[in-house]
Amino acid sequence: MTALVSPLVSIRNLTKTYQRGPEKLEVLHGLDFEIPAGDFVALMGPSGSGKTTLLNLIGGLDAPTGGEIEIEGQRIDTMSAGQLSHWRSQNVGFVFQFYNLMPTLTAQKNVELPLLLTRLGAGDRKRRAEIALQLVGLSERGKHKPNELSGGQQQRVAIARAIVSDPKLLICDEPTGDLDRQSAEEILELLQTLNRDHGKTIVMVTHDPKAAEYATHTLHLDKGTLVEQVRRVA
C-alpha cells in the first residue's frame, strides 16, 4: 500500500477582499485545496485572476479576509504581524521576478542576508551561504556583485538566498519572467532539482505554459475561483 503524503498547505474557504474607496473588490472567492509536502505547484490564470494574491497569502505576506490557511499544522491566518514575520523567517523562502539583490553586496553577502535575523555567527553564516551557492551552481561567483552577473546568475543568487535558511516551502512569483528562454529553462531545472532531490515544496506563479510543465501539479485560477487542478503523471 502506498503511504499517503500529508498536506503541507491546507486552504479552507479562503477569501480576500480589498477596499477600493467606497467599493469592495473580492479577489479570492472561497478557495479550498491542499498542497502535499514535496509538491511543485504552478499557479496559472489570466491577469487579475488572483494568483499573486494567493501566493502572498500562502507565504504569509498578507492576511486573508476569511477562511483558513494551515501550513504544516499551523494556522498562519490567526498569527499577529510579529508572529508571521518570525514564522516566515523560519519556514519560507521567496524568489521574485526581479531578483531584489542588494547592488553593493557580493553574491555571498546577499545570500547571507536572511541569516542576519538568526543567532548564527559570521563564520556559520559564511559556510551556509557557500553551501547554498554551491547548490545553485555558483560556488565560484561568491565574490561578484550583481552587476557582474548575468540575469540568470542573479536569479540563482536569489534562489540561494531563498534556500539558505533551509525552508520547507519556496514561494516563487514569475521567477523566469525577466529571463531569456535558455536562462529560464536553467532556473526551472534548478527549481525542479530542489523539489525532487532536496524535498522543497514549491509554489510558483507563472504565465508560461512551458514553465508549468516543470511542475508536478497545476492550479488554474480565474476571477478568484479555482477552475481546474491538473496533476502531472511522472
TrEMBL record:
Database matches in Pfam families: ABC_tran
GO molecular function, one term: transmembrane transporter activity
InterPro entries: AAA+_ATPase, ABC_transporter-like_ATP-bd, ABC_transporter-like_CS, ABC_transpr_LolD-like, MacB-like_ATP-bd, P-loop_NTPase
Gene3D superfamilies linked: P-loop containing nucleotide triphosphate hydrolases (3.40.50.300)
Superkingdom: Bacteria
A GO CC term assigned to this protein in UniProt: transmembrane transporter complex
SMART domains membership: AAA
UniProt key word Transport: yes
Domain named ABC transporter: residues: 9-233
Keywords, alphabetical: ATP-binding, Nucleotide-binding, Transport
UniProt keyword ATP-binding present: yes
Family, per entry: Belongs to the ABC transporter superfamily. Macrolide exporter (TC 3.A.1.122) family.
PANTHER family in UniProt: ABC TRANSPORTER ATP-BINDING PROTEIN, IMPORT ATP-BINDING PROTEIN
Name assigned to this protein: ABC transporter ATP-binding protein
